[in-house]
Amino acid sequence: MPRSVNHVASRARRKKVLKLAKGYFGRRKNVWTVAKNAVERGLAYAYKGRKQKKRNFRALWIQRINAGARLHGLSYSALIGKLNSAGIELNRKVLADLAMNHPDAFKAIVDQVK
């Protein structure tokens, strides 16, 4: 009996990977074996990047809060400690936005906890 090969599924699988490789440079965009490796690596980096994005944004918010707090004579850790003891529950994202875009509101919060 002749060997049965599902060309429809394998062609579709290859087309899917080559579509993901669109925009890559050189043979990475049109040679199956090279494109497959490049796409796998790219998807791994994308997965890792989604986790790192959360860390990077938190670090950015902390830097902005620290810069805003030091303008008013406090460090970041002192400000966060006083906010917690005062029972003010604002997350770092909101505090960073206030420090950056609404300095008068941020100053009011700092004056409240001093």
Automatic annotation (TrEMBL):
GO molecular function, one term: rRNA binding
UniProt feature coiled coil, ranges: none
GO biological process, one term: translation
SUPFAM superfamilies to which the protein is assigned, alphabetical: Ribosomal protein L20
GO terms under cellular component: ribonucleoprotein complex; ribosome
Pfam families reported in the protein's UniProt record: Ribosomal_L20
Gene3D superfamilies, A to Z: 6.10.160.10, Ribosomal protein L20
InterPro entries reported in the protein's UniProt record: Ribosomal_bL20, RIBOSOMAL_L20_CS, Ribosomal_protein_bL20_C
UniProt keywords, alphabetically: Ribonucleoprotein, Ribosomal protein, RNA-binding, rRNA-binding
Purpose of the protein: Binds directly to 23S ribosomal RNA and is necessary for the in vitro assembly process of the 50S ribosomal subunit. It is not involved in the protein synthesizing functions of that subunit.
UniProt family annotation: Belongs to the bacterial ribosomal protein bL20 family.
UniProt xrefs under NCBIfam families: rplT_bact
Protein name: Large ribosomal subunit protein bL20
Organism per entry: Dyadobacter luteus
Gene that this sequence comes from: rplT
